[in-house]
Amino acid sequence: MSTTEKLGTLLGNYVTSIKGILAAAVVDQDGLIISSKMNENITQEDAVGAITAALGMAAERLKNEFKIIGHFGAQIQTEQGVFIFTNAGKNQTLTTLTTEDGEPDEIIPYAYMAAEKLAQLLDLRKEVVLTLPSLDDFEEQKFTYKIMVLGDGGVGKTSLINQFIEKTFMVDYKSTIGVNIMTKNYTVMENLTIKFSIFDIAGQKYFRKVRKQYYRGSQAIIYVYDVTNRETLEGVKKWKEDVEETLKGQELKSLLIGNKIDLVNQRQVDMMEGKEFAEQMGLPYIETSAKDGTNVDKAFGRIATKLAVDSMIK
Fold this sequence. Notes:
alpha/beta, about 325 residues, 5-stranded antiparallel β-sheet
């Protein structure tokens, strides 16, 4: 079976076996639709035409905004349904169009599964199973992962973690002295739970010699910078180099967070600059406010979903 045929088969299985999907396509960074499939239950000519046109518009948007929406579960609401964009390799994005009543939160775990298989097919030329397992067929599972939250002192790492775990924000919180370890059970789906062990590492220079000891055994890294302090963005480079030097060759899921977006008038790094920096570093990107909770659950949820899905398809 050729790669083209495998792509078609995989997309077909994805569209037909997952509830709430109208169509799906693999689109490259130039807006070229490499492969696409539509739900086989759609037979009316006008509906087919509308969906085809919608996929075309999504492909054109990807061409213009690949660096912005071509990563990590971005969603766009349209008249036809919700488009879900999931990175599927170096230069490809899996574009999924939901039905009007489709639930993106239920589809995204499968989108990650399909995207991982697509990346292996297109970038690594690996043989993959072209079907997708149903999460409903699994007994309740609980995965445990160690996550490091890293960044310069004062960027809001501890506040992010507290907001995620306890839904609180302390105005007068003092910086972490060394390392603080917190746990959280996070439900990805009804029968799939993630247990996070979150290591909050002090960002101050005095702790530099010690912190590397905590890196080992991590499955994911969340890098945090403060959008009101440009120096902390540059600091991410040093943190990433530190991790890569310590955990050479280890596969890690990573995410870059630009925090404190509630401080609009103090902002030094705008969203576009943050995204471009993340692209250069090879990191998915999201902006948050630990103070009001904006995107905090979403950020940790993305890491949780990616970790769980990768574990299930290996």
